[in-house]
Amino acid sequence: MALTIYLSCLLALSVASLAHGIKRSLKNQDPGPQPLELKQVFVLFQIQYNRSYSNPEEYARRLDIFAHNLAQAQQLEEEDLGTAEFGVTPFSDLTEEEFGQFYGHQRMAGEAPSVGRKVGSEEWGEPVPPTCDWRKLPGIISPIKQQGNCSCCWAMAAAGNIEALWGIRYHQPVEVSVQELLDCGRCGDGCKGGFTWDAFITVLNNSGLASAKDYPFLGNTKPHRCLAKKYKKVAWIQDFIMLQGNEQAIAWYLATKGPITVTINMKLLQHYQRGVIQAMHTTCDPQRVDHSVLLVGFGKSKSVAGRQAEGGSSRPRPHHPIPYWILKNSWGAEWGEEGYFRLHRGNNTCGITKYPVTARVDLRVKKRLVSCPP
Question: Are residues 61 and 125 in the same domain?
Fold first, then answer.
């Protein structure tokens, strides 16, 4: 752990002094020799994230991609309207296409199926609390998962949704089997991608899910390998619904009912390190959603001062608090804010309102409210 922290700090310091020069070189399209500092930073990246390459040609290719990504991260940080910081991440040696292939949905989204009612304004008439963070209540949010090269964010988000709702309703922590969703889904090879409603349909068809301990995650799938009947079910759902595409309604449902799944444009997440992303729609198209995550809370950032730009001049930065969403990702705890990230709340950032979907684990008590930790 100490070595990881040391390497992270060393990488951050090295990148800070290097990124501007790389960006300027790439803008000028100068293919000259790579600076020694870049190669040193790349070695630190390889050590921290356990990367190795099969031959010198592949090493050189990954080094060029790494340099390009550092320059792009610096540009994103300059353009972002919030407090987000972008830089070296576990994905800094991947092209944008590779990143999308490994970690996005892969298959294009059609229209979502008819999944029951949408929450209307008449249901969220009560005031929405200023903050909410379900992570603060023990037994609700399961640990951060690592999907690896299996495109199963949709299954992990759906599993997290069921786990949270089960914990809220029955005061009992549970971790359900993501592998069962992959092996037994209607879409065949679950590592090729999917959407959260695919997972919920599988849960309904199987009358529940086994535990993650009994049916552990393998990161791959094989045809006709479904073992759903072999294990005891530890959680189940009655149905699932699509919420209204309104951030106030989403906040109310999140605060009073529990975490929900959302599907967003993940483009900026490849280079994200920490802070609140407040991107323009031209930078993060809200219509091109390709990554499912679990929405676990919301709040407001503290007032922030302008950051110092190159040459000592200050870039315009918000001095007022920024409202944000808290989202649980499935790329491991080394990524982002210990596996989580924050998006600006109030402007449909990265398409967060397009597919807000949640399971329901209990319909017997209508309009039952729960208390969200502030």
Answer: no
pLDDT in tens, 105-155: 765 455 566 555 566 545 656 789 999 999 999 999 999 999 998 999 999
How far apart, in Å, do the first and last CA atoms of the chain sit? 30
Residues 156 and 266 in one domain: yes
| pLDDT tens-digit readout, 308-357 | 444 444 455 556 889 999 999 999 999 999 999 999 999 999 999 999 99
- The CATH number that applies at residue 203 is 3.90.70.10
CB distance 357 to 261 below 8 Å? yes
- pLDDT value of residue 188: 52
d(CA 362, CA 374): 24
Q: Which residue range(s) make up the domain with 14?
A: 2-79
Active site residues: 153, 291, 329
Residue 366 belongs to some domain of the structure = no
